[in-house]
């Protein structure tokens, strides 16, 4: 039998269920073959997966394809999945590996190592949402400063402040040590403060505005479909 998840991205953003207090039962239900648990996980985590994936590849269709491949692989391998303390972390780490693997295997792209992988954080249309000129200038200055950071520092900042991940969770997602995560984040914050503090910018506040804008423009518009084959 086949079942389809066919929802627009906007519906996914509005209708996603609340994060369960304990994820183990939901994950275990998926492992046991529950299509309902699979669909719930998909709707719950799709927006954050798309947002994160677009940081590595601006081609939204390619990122959506990667998300579908990820979920199809999960369904096909459900009986062999291990325990997971965090579904979101598992999905983010898996999507990261898949996107980078596909980028590296594409003969039309420049070969990438994990250390120099691209991480996009540009704002464009979203800047029009800011009507206060002073704030707009502050966000623009912050974006320019962030653009000058190494890709892994940008990614660590994104996971920490947009996704609210712990240092340990970021380490698992990025496949590095917790100590390395601390270094990435603090070096990034030091660089931002060094550049923006002399201008009188409130870095934590502007960073919050910036990340909110980054989120607002990432999930929109077209439909997405996942085909699930129930055994």
UniProtKB/TrEMBL annotation:
Keywords, A to Z, come to: Sigma factor, Transcription, Transcription regulation
Q: Which InterPro entries match?
A: RNA_pol_sigma-70-like, RNA_pol_sigma-70_dom, RNA_pol_sigma70_r2, RNA_pol_sigma70_r4_t2, RNA_pol_sigma_r2, RNA_pol_sigma_r3/r4-like, WH-like_DNA-bd_sf
Among its keywords, does the record have Membrane?
Answer: no
Please indicate if the UniProt record lists Lipid biosynthesis as a keyword: no
Q: Which Gene3D superfamilies match?
A: 1.10.1740.10, Winged helix-like DNA-binding domain superfamily/Winged helix DNA-binding domain (1.10.10.10)
Domain RNA polymerase sigma factor 70 region 4 type span(s) in chain numbering: 142-192
Tell me which SUPFAM superfamilies the record gives.
Sigma2 domain of RNA polymerase sigma factors, Sigma3 and sigma4 domains of RNA polymerase sigma factors
Q: Where is the RNA polymerase sigma-70 region domain?
A: 42-105
Taxonomically, the superkingdom here is: Bacteria
The family annotation for this protein states: Belongs to the sigma-70 factor family. ECF subfamily.
Spell out the NCBIfam families in the cross-references.
sigma70-ECF
- Name of the protein in question: RNA polymerase sigma factor (Sigma-70 family)
Provide the organism lineage as a comma list.
Bacteria, Pseudomonadati, Bacteroidota, Cytophagia, Cytophagales
